[in-house]
């Protein structure tokens, strides 16, 4: 596997060199940086043009300019813009903003697309399948700038008006219950009686839950009490066990529940760290959580079930960490006009970690949602198609005939094989999301790589444009390499 990874990354080097040469050539012939000076009546015009030629090396032959710029890349020198500013300094600041937007949107679209794709494949030709397919094609066909503007209107302005005085009306609670019941009925599938039971049961639970939340003003002062955290953690432990083994495998279930319980205890021990969180502490707590889950699974899994027990323990512990983090996050939220429409964060914000995360989320949610809704359609359709082909294969039918639970058949046998063609779409979708991010940044006034790219095109400023293209090319080529490595991990035959 190691040599496969090395070979794959070595192959990426000539591809990157070819892309930089082609991009540099196209940027060079795309416009004249001195066009505005040629029409100027300024008496110092010739002197200004001479300075600009020297600054941008316009008098140097093309091949020398290219090799000078290329060798500068290895030193971290991306050239200078028309104002003499270092392009790398501008890029490094803009990259953090843009990749924060792109990575979250990509992860959200992948997660939503995979989950809905698996469910619609299992429930083929159901009402849920038709609804999800319609929604996928609808979002895929929407222009990103129009969707972003609609989200600003209804996801920010209207929603912020509601958040100033939040609450649930009787009609709203009933509508939530009905929608929840319909989703549950679509997920359950089967006979009409079975779906009706799921509809009324889930609908009644949701109506009761939101009625309690409204009566206790939970939305004004959100948070999870310790009993709720424990209950959700144990449910997460059972879910983690179901992913890796049937519930009849008692050692795996016990390992997952024990890991979840120990993770809850650990969250109480490290309560001061969680309250005064930093990124370093979050990283250390994540490593500690995963290690705790792995150690619990190894100790309680036994000889036969040790491997799935370790995985279930790590997953259960991680879910507890996510629940505790979510609790602290919503506890830091305060009612008001939380959803922002301008910029990546509040200027000059000086707040504790969790309050800062709430501010980031308020600025991040709409632009990321605009990109994720368009991107999820691709992942959903590819996952559904790939899962349908895999579910019809002989080894899946054999797994069902052996009596394995449906969750095991889908997640351990079908999904892993179905994921191979889906990985191909990741690279294409990442390029599409970068393209959409250029527009989304303009709509939401984010000063990222997209703004740098557009301003470079308008001002005929070659080196900022080349900086954007290089970062984008490197990201896509590296993502292609990672996709190939994932192929080899999912199917060992590819390594040969």
Describe the protein's topology.
Elements: H1 2-29, H2 35-38, H3 45-56, H4 62-73, H5 87-122, H6 127-141, H7 144-164, H8 170-188, H9 192-215, H10 226-244, H11 250-269, H12 271-275, H13 279-300, H14 306-331, H15 353-391, H16 394-401, H17 406-443, H18 449-458, H19 462-490
Describe this structure in words.
This protein is mostly helical and 496 residues long. 78% of the residues lie in helices and 0% in strands. It has helices spanning 2-29, 35-38, 45-56, 62-73, 87-122, 127-141, 144-164, 170-188, 192-215, 226-244, 250-269, 271-275, 279-300, 306-331, 353-391, 394-401, 406-443, 449-458, 462-490. Helix 7 (144-164) packs across helix 15 (353-391). The model has no long low-confidence stretch (mean pLDDT 84).
List key phrases describing it.
496 residues, mainly alpha, 78% helix, 0% strand
Quick rundown:
By secondary structure, the protein is an all-alpha fold.
């Amino acid at each position: 596997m190691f040599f496969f990874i090395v070979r794959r990354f070595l192959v990426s080097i000539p591809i990157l060199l070819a892309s930089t040469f082609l991009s540099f050539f196209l940027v060079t012939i795309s416009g004249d940086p001195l066009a505005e000076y040629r029409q100027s009546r300024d008496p110092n015009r010739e002197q200004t043009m001479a300075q600009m030629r020297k600054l941008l090396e316009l008098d140097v032959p093309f091949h020398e300019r290219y090799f000078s710029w290329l060798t500068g890349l290895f030193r971290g020198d991306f050239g200078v813009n028309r104002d003499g500013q270092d392009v790398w300094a501008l890029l490094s600041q803009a990259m953090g903003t843009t990749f924060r937007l792109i990575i979250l949107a990509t992860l959200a679209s992948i997660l939503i697309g995979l989950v809905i794709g698996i469910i619609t494949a299992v429930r083929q030709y159901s009402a849920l399948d038709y609804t999800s397919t319609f929604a996928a094609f609808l979002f895929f066909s929407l222009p990103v700038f129009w969707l972003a503007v609609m989200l600003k209107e209804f996801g920010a302005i209207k929603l912020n008006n509601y958040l100033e005085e939040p609450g649930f009306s009787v009609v709203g609670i009933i509508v939530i219950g009905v929608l929840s019941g319909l989703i549950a009925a679509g997920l359950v599938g089967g006979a009409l009686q079975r779906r009706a039971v799921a509809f009324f049961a889930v609908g009644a639970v949701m109506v009761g839950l939101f009625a309690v939340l409204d009566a206790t003003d939970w939305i004004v002062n959100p948070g999870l009490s310790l009993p709720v955290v424990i209950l959700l953690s144990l449910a997460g432990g059972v879910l983690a066990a179901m992913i890796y083994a049937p519930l009849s495998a008692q050692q795996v279930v016990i390992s997952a529940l024990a890991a979840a319980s120990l993770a809850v205890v650990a969250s109480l021990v490290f309560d001061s760290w969680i309250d005064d969180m930093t990124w370093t502490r979050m990283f250390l707590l994540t490593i500690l959580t995963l290690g705790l889950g792995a150690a619990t699974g190894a100790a309680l899994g036994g000889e036969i079930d040790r491997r799935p027990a370790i995985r279930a323990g790590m997953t259960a512990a991680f879910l507890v960490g996510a629940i505790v983090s979510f609790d602290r996050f919503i506890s830091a939220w305060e009612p008001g006009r939380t959803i922002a429409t301008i910029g990546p964060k509040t200027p000059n914000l000086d707040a504790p970690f969790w309050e800062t995360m709430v501010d980031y989320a308020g600025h991040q949610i709409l632009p990321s949602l605009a990109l994720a809704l368009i991107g999820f359609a691709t992942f959903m359709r590819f996952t559904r198609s790939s899962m349908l082909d895999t579910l019809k294969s002989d080894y899946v039918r054999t797994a069902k005939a052996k009596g394995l639970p449906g969750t095991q058949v889908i997640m351990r046998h079908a999904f892993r094989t179905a994921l191979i063609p889906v990985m191909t779409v990741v690279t294409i979708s990442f390029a599409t999301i970068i393209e959409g991010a250029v527009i989304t940044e303009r709509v939401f006034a984010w000063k990222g790589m997209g703004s740098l790219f557009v301003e470079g095109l308008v001002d005929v400023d070659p080196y900022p444009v080349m900086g954007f293209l290089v970062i984008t090319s490197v990201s896509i080529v590296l993502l292609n390499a990672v996709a190939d490595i994932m192929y080899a991990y999912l199917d060992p035959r590819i390594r040969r």
